[in-house]
Each structure stands twice: as C-alpha cells, then as structure tokens.
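thread: overnight batch results

M.L. [08:02]
morning all. the overnight job finished for the chain we discussed friday. pasting input first so we're all looking at the same thing
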Amino acid sequence: MAANRWLKPEVYPLFAAVGVAVGICGMQLVRNITTNPEVRVTKQNRTAGILENFAEGEKYSQHSLRKYVRNKQPQIMPSVNNFFSDPRN
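M.L. [08:03]
and the structure it wrote out:
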C-alpha cells in the first residue's frame, strides 16, 4: 500500500534529485576521507600530530576542477547575460 503511494511517475524527478544530492555528498565524504591531508583514519597516522606538509595541502586544495574554472568567467550563460547587460544591444 505504501509503495503505491510513493512510486508514482510524478515522484521520479524528486527521487532523481535526492539521489544526485546524496551521490554528491557521498563523493565529497569519500574524497575527504581518502585524500584530505588533515584527516587521519588509522591510529598510527593519528599519533603523528600536526604535520607541516604544505605541499600535500596545496595538492588537495588545488584540485583539477578548481584549476579548470580558475580562469573562467563566473557566469552560467554568458551570451544571455551579455545580451541583457550590454548597452550596445
């Protein structure tokens, strides 16, 4: 009975949006656990204390997505923005 209430075609986009959000959160959690230099999961690494490893921190913070968007304009649709904001049009 409850499955019929929630498994309607109108609810599929909601399931998709929530699934994508959960996937992004899961990906970020896995990325932090596996590559963040400040997260230490094993006991041996936790006893090391605070490390002064700036190269590893720089590598973590300057990931490939950040390098890709570094020189891009912060606009989603530049042609539409220019059309409405440019006084020459």
